[in-house]
Amino acid sequence: MTNTEKVWQYLDKTQIFYVTTVDGDQPKCRPFSFKMMANGKIYFGVGTFKDCYRQLESNPKIEIVASDGSGFLRYYGKAAFDDDPALFQKACAEADYIPKMYNEKTGHKLRMFYIGEATAELRNLAGIRESMTM
């Protein structure tokens, strides 16, 4: 199993995960649930009208944290945007709410990104159980 597959399985098991960005000198954290696997990478989506997007454009450092109840995952690096139209089509096919939110009528656009220069840590309260570069 690849490191990406390990992270994918963990995120899939937890369903909700928390994304942290930086706004100036202040961390900002919010829940996410959408993710998809494509081209051997885990992709996430963010609306271009959201603060999260503006923060990632200004400072691409990002960290995701998820917990399965017995431990947690820290997945961090730099957001790398990918504007391949096929990614948006795949996202629409995987999550029926996406085309309802992001379309010409609403004027909202979705940008897909993955975490580049990434490290993933599977941890428990005592420390790191496994560290992976991706």
Explain what you see:
The protein is of the alpha+beta class and 134 residues long. It has a single domain (3-125), classed as Pnp Oxidase, Chain A. It contains 4 helices and 8 strands, in the order αββββαββααββ. Strands 1, 2, 3, 4, 5, 6, 7 and 8 form an 8-stranded antiparallel beta sheet that branches. A hairpin with a 2-residue loop joins β7 (110-124) and β8. The mean pLDDT is 97.
Into which percent range does the helicity of residues fall? 25-40%
Mean pLDDT, as a whole number?
Answer: 97
Q: What radius of gyration results from the CA coordinates?
A: 15 Å
Strand content: over 45%
CATH architectural group: Roll
Give the class-level CATH name.
Mainly Beta
Within CATH, the superfamily carries the name: Electron Transport, Fmn-binding Protein, Chain A
Query: How many helices in DSSP terms?
Result: 4
Uncertain segments of ≥5 residues (pLDDT<50)?
none
User: Which structural category fits the helices and strands?
Assistant: alpha+beta
- Say how many strands there are: 8
Taking the alpha carbons of the first and last residues, their distance comes to: 13 Å
Largest sheet: 8 strands, antiparallel
Order of helices and strands: HEEEEHEEHHEE
Overall tally of domains: 1
